[in-house]
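for ur thesis appendix - Arrestin-like N-terminal domain-containing protein. copy paste whatever u need, i formatted it the way the template wanted (i think)
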Amino acid sequence: MQCSKHPHPCQFPPSTSVHEGSSKIKVEYYITAAADRPIFGGLSTKKRVTKPLQLSSSFSSTTSPAPLSISSLPLTLQQKDGTKRLQPGPDGLPAYTPSINVQVVHPEPPIFVRGQANRIRFNVHSPSEAIGKLFVRSVNINFKTSTIAASGSAAQRVQQNASGVELSSLIPIDSEVLELDTGTWGRLSMLSLRPTFESCLVQIKHAAEISVGVSVGPQGSISYASSSFDVLVMDPPPSYEEI
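the 3d part is after this line
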């Protein structure tokens, strides 16, 4: 398909039907065949048949995923004297409020395969003052899909959410870097998302968000630290049989 924006042809977008509220994006393909049948003299009848086509596409992207977005979670730790801030540090350093953050451990760019088990590894970074006081209470991993259709200067966007992993736990944080892996709990993301796609007309992009619930003590109130990152989704490679 020729493109007015680039000298090279653009790939046809896959068949798509998504909606969010009043926003809707739909891509459909049809094939039409017509045949003339002579019936008498110069007269003929024409029969026309139209059938819908389901067009799929393989992974297609020319841009790199955006860097990780990490949010820090401030912690309130009760001191022996009843204060809720740490004592001033050595050499007159001011007191500070400790915080934790979640770091995803994944190759760049992170690639997920549809229909297969995709392990997600991440680290919980905690200050040394909090070791032995904190517990991981929950882990939630969700995926967000953005479908963008462009026509001239106008663009339509539809956002969709999909749940990946939901886990309740009670894991003590006993080191400054706690390594976690969804495969350890047997919770692997079997994705049914559409493959990542990018063309002049339609873009399909995915992002993952990890939210870790943390509490001070095993029964304390739960606060959340999160990390989000763009992912590339592709179909599994074809299977081959030995001849």
